[in-house]
């Protein structure tokens, strides 16, 4: 695995030489209804921003200034369907819970330029601190109206043009609004509107579908979660870090796993089963996750009796009864978990580890998911705070699998 790692010196933030040319508050293209949107118990603990940057090479038919105009118009139009994205997060004084005030206050749109070319940036996959300037996180310093600085918007879009004619779109959204799947649908719909096409998917904005039961019923133990002493309505970012190390102490590496390597891992797991029907759980995700789990857990080199815990995200939309609409907007993801002692990870057959990974997802049934949602409401919890865990992030790409590891 070591020979597959890629280490690149990241650019410094000032290297991109970003200049903000204009900024404005984009309002919904049509008047929207003033209302308060419920946030589920899953949404409640995710009050922090998520930033993504999307790079596009030169396209002579779509120079950056045309892209900016089209995207600004598309943003105004999409805020009609996704009206809550033009709203503001607030705390209900009676319940102490977060809600979204769908007040039509708008989203921030920023146009910027860079003196660099895309080729000068280098590898877009590698974690690069320079990318932080491609996303506006704070309204301070922007030439907006004074009243627009009072509340943090739930959506900020920045279009940055490069000397080569390419551009980047940076988005900052509050995690309470989307999970990864619903954010992808949002981007697909935004792209469709920017191309003068209808929405790709009509989103389901009914957060009551994941409301806690009344009264709540916790019918399972939930070792994937622990109680947090955070008052209701407090920003999750104020909570202490799960890591003892500072960001400066972390070392980033990218391990590129080709299709051949993944096929080899699958074959390794199947050999121990002798071709039985149990091989159905030997998927690309499960074998790569099991391999990373083993490597990460054993890298600590301590007590073989120590228990290691693996967490990974599972979409619960198809697992509920009845299933949630695939277009459900909001956070519909829970953490699956599995555990093993280090000696089992080191000496046990690889196929057994792959099976353990698959069992984590199987555990999440409708009742388990509902119990977890109710537990969150009672205990005020997060799945990100565990004493000993392995959290796997796997991104599938054209050439195989890329794993972000810190």
UniProtKB/TrEMBL annotation:
This is Uncharacterized protein. Belongs to the plant acyltransferase family. InterPro entries: CAT-like_dom_sf, Plant_Fungal_Acyltransferase. It holds the Pfam family Transferase. It comes from Dipteronia sinensis. Signal peptide: none annotated. Gene3D superfamilies: Chloramphenicol acetyltransferase-like domain. GO terms for molecular function: acyltransferase activity, transferring groups other than amino-acyl groups.
């Amino acid at each position: 695995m070591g020979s597959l790692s890629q280490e690149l010196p990241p650019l410094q933030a000032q290297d991109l030489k970003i200049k903000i040319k204009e900024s404005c508050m984009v309002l919904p293209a049509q008047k929207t209804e003033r209302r308060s949107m419920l946030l589920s118990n899953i949404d409640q603990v995710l009050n922090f921003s998520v930033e993504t940057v999307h790079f596009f090479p030169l396209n002579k038919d779509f120079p950056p200034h045309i892209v900016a105009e089209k995207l600004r118009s598309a943003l105004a139009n999409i805020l009609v369907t996704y009206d809550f994205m033009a709203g503001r997060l607030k705390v209900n004084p009676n319940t102490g819970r977060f809600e979204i005030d769908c007040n039509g206050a708008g989203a921030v749109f920023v146009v910027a330029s860079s003196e660099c070319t895309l080729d000068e940036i280098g590898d877009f996959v590698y974690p690069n601190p320079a990318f932080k300037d491609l996303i506006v996180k704070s309204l301070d310093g922007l030439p907006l109206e004074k009243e627009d600085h009072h509340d943090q918007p739930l959506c900020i879009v920045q279009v940055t043009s490069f000397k080569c004619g390419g551009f980047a779109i940076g988005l900052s959204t509050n995690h309470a609004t989307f999970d990864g799947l619903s954010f992808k649908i949002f981007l697909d719909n935004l792209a469709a509107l920017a191309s003068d096409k209808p929405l790709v998917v009509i989103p389901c904005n009914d957060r009551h579908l994941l409301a806690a039961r009344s009264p709540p019923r916790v019918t399972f133990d939930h070792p994937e979660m622990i109680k947090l002493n955070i008052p209701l309505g407090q920003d999750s970012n104020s909570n202490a870090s799960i890591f003892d190390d500072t960001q400066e102490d972390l070392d980033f590496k990218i391990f590129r796993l080709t299709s051949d390597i993944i096929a080899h891992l699958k074959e390794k797991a199947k050999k121990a089963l002798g071709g039985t029907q149990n091989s159905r759980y030997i998927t690309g995700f499960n074998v790569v996750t099991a391999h990373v789990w083993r490597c990460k857990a054993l890298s600590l080199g301590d007590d073989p009796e120590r228990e290691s815990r693996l967490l990974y995200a599972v979409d619960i939309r198809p697992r509920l009864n009845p299933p949630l609409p695939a277009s459900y907007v909001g956070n519909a993801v829970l953490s699956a978990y599995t555990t093993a002692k280090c000696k089992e990870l080191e000496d046990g057959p690889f196929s057994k580890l792959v099976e353990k990974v698959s069992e984590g997802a199987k555990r999440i049934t409708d009742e388990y998911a509902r119990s977890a949602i109710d537990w969150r409401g009672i205990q005020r919890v997060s799945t990100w705070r565990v004493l000993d865990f392995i959290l796997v992030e796997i991104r599938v790409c054209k050439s195989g699998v890329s794993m972000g590891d810190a």
